[in-house]
Every structure is written in structure tokens, then in C-alpha cells.
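Hi there,

I know you've been waiting on this one. I reran it after we fixed the sequence typo, so this is the corrected version. Both the input and the resulting structure follow.
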Amino acid sequence: MIKRLFSKYFELVFWIAAIAALAFADPAGPAHFSLCPFKALGFTWCPGCGLGHSIAWLFHGNITNSWHAHWLGIPALGIIFYRIYSLVRLRFFDQNALLIK
């Protein structure tokens, strides 16, 4: 049962937790947790680095700093919100869609 619940809701819980963590994070703070493998290997540049800061700046209402952190932050936040909406709709409201699979 736990395995079934985990496989059914993991992605939804992951995205909601990630968005909540970015909403409550201080983007101007001295340290910011990173899962970037390039940064862990010592590279100074990565095409995805700055997305977390960009989204955190958006939650703080600062679009200028969000744009400067990473220009894909705004579309990334929209895509994540759409994914959360799709998963909620699929898991809780559209039971017929589950039968089609």
C-alpha cells in the first residue's frame, strides 16, 4: 500500500514541496542549497544554475532580480504550476483519465 501511494503521489508531493521551499527561501541570503552536479564537480557555470534563485525572487515579487538570476525562471514557474495542476486534476478529479491508461 505504501509503495502504491508513493508511486501515485510522489511527483505531486515533490513539486509542491519544491515550490514551497523556494517560496520560503531567502534568495538574497549568503548560502543557497544546490543539487547541481556541475557545481558539485567544481564547474563555475551551468545552464540551469540560477533557476531556483529566479523562482525565489518571483515569490518575493522582484521580477527584475528574477530575470537577472535566470531568464527562464518565469516560464519554468509557469510550467511547474501547470504540472501541479495536471497532477491534481488527474489524481483527484479526472478518474476516467486513469482508466484510459
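Quick highlight: DSSP finds six helices and no strands in the chain.

Best,
R. S.
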